[in-house]
Design goal:
The protein has helices at 29-37, 82-88, 127-133, 138-141, 154-162, 180-183; strands at residues 13-17, 23-28, 41-53, 58-67, 103-107, 122-126. The chain is an alpha+beta fold and 184 residues long.
Length: 184
């Protein structure tokens, strides 16, 4: 009987790189294997000891694959949503630093004072701090932001949303050097 509590290895996440090693997206291992068998990609890093089996042979499951041909893709922007604001701020109140209790999105400069819905004007705030600040700026309320809000990069979004497999680190600019395959 198949263990349904464990996700299938073919559904694991794989980092997909463009021909120039630029991170494109995260796809399923199933899609990555199809790209490999179609000759459209090469495997740069296997998943730790995981294999997929056919009737006659077995293959290493990929963790990082690179396309053979360069794909021109539009600049990737992260959508401005409540969920993405919370993710950017790690569900941490940007005034007091707590991660406990319900969180909301706060306008640093309130809308009534001309504040806009932008990455630079929205932060995660706990109910207590949001109520304390009210319809004022942080300065008017005697509060300080823990850090200045910024627009997250696509790489930052991949890091936070999918987590980072060790094999992905060199390709997401988290290690000082790329692997041997990237320099040849």
């Amino acid at each position: 009987m198949k263990d349904m509590t464990r996700p299938s290895v073919i559904n694991r996440k794989v980092l997909l790189l463009n021909q120039n090693y630029e991170p494109l997206t995260v796809c399923s291992a199933r899609r990555a294997v199809v790209l490999l068998f179609q000759g459209k990609a090469e495997m740069l890093a296997p998943a730790d000891g995981l294999r997929i089996h056919t009737v006659s042979t077995s293959y290493s499951l990929p963790s990082v694959v690179r396309l053979w041909k360069y794909r021109k893709v539009p600049f990737k922007r992260i959508m401005l949503t409540r969920k993405n604001i919370m993710m950017r701020d790690n569900n941490r109140c940007q005034y007091c630093g707590t991660t406990k209790g319900p969180m909301s999105v706060d306008h640093i400069i309130p809308k009534t004072m001309g504040g806009k819905d932008t990455w630079h004007n929205l932060v995660c705030a706990c109910s207590r701090c949001n109520n304390k600040k009210g319809n004022r700026t942080p300065e008017q309320a005697g509060m300080k932001l823990l850090r200045k809000p910024t627009r997250p990069s696509y790489i930052t979004f991949i890091q936070r949303h999918y987590g980072i497999a060790d094999q992905w680190r060199p390709y997401l600019f988290l290690d000082p050097s790329l692997g041997d395959s990237a320099t040849t």
